[in-house]
Amino acid sequence: MKALILVDLQNDFLPGGALPVPDGNAIIPLANQMQGAFKLVVATQDWHPANHGSFAASHPGKQPGELIQLKKLPQTLWPVHCVQHTRGAELAPNLMLNRLNKVFKKGTNADIDSYSGFFDNGHHQDTGLGGFLKEKKVTDVYLLGLATDYCVKHTALDALALGFKVYLIEDACRGVNLKPGDAENAIKEMKQAGAVVLNSRAVLHQLIK
Ligand code: VGL
Ligand code: ZN
Question: Is 8 a catalytic residue?
């Protein structure tokens, strides 16, 4: 069984949002098209309390982009984004929702960030995504979304560690690129860990025959 995972396709990560990923809106039509090739589609949703520890604003004197230690873990600081029940946290308005089987929220604990759709960054808390996929007999996961160098990367690495075959739909991902090359390096890292990188056309050829 194959599943499509849509990573963090939320207003705040799109142009005009609080933490815009360059060209992030370009992948929404692809996300809609890809859904047609899968029986099982899930989404992740960054869902932070207003005082989340990943926000620069939660640390007086700190700016977005700075690196701190948050409860013993290295933490890049971000602008306030994806605050629970705000418009910025909502899934993109032009994203097709009718075929979504389930949405997994993450980043809800103020003391720890959660880039992966499976676990928080300390691997303490489980979102339920892994169990859900195993229950549905999923063996292969296809990933797309935002951002290549953070949530897509960590979701891919955790999926591999959980034993899923992982396909990264490269043209349907975009990176933050705080440093130039971050997204490209993230793709190398995912490949090295065992992910297969392909484009959306190849997915359609592979799955719709
Ligand atoms: C993300 C930074 C902070 C992401 C989420 O979705 O990649 N990046 N929160
Ligand atoms: Zn976040």
Answer: yes
Q: Which atom of ligand 1 is nearest to the CA of 78?
A: 3
Q: Which atom of ligand 1 is least distant from the CA of 13?
A: 6
Q: Domain-by-domain residue ranges, the chain? A: 2-207
Catalytic residue list contains 151: yes
Backbone φ, ψ for residue 112 (5° rounding): -150, 140
CATH 3.30.420.40 correct for 2-207 = no
Q: Is 80 exposed, middle or buried (0-12, 13-18, 19+ CB in 10 A)?
A: buried
DSSP 10: B
Q: Is the pTM of this model over 0.90?
A: yes
Q: Is the pLDDT score of 173 beyond 70?
A: yes
Q: What is the Å distance from ligand 1's center to 46 Cα?
A: 7
Say if residues 49 and 110 touch (Cβ distance below 8 Å): yes
Q: How far is the CA of 204 from the centre of ligand 2 (A)?
A: 30
Check if 8 has its Cβ closer than 6 Å to any atom of ligand 1: yes
pLDDT tens-digit readout, 57-68: 999 999 999 999
pLDDT number for residue 11:
98
Asked whether 47 lines ligand 1 (CB < 6 A), one says no
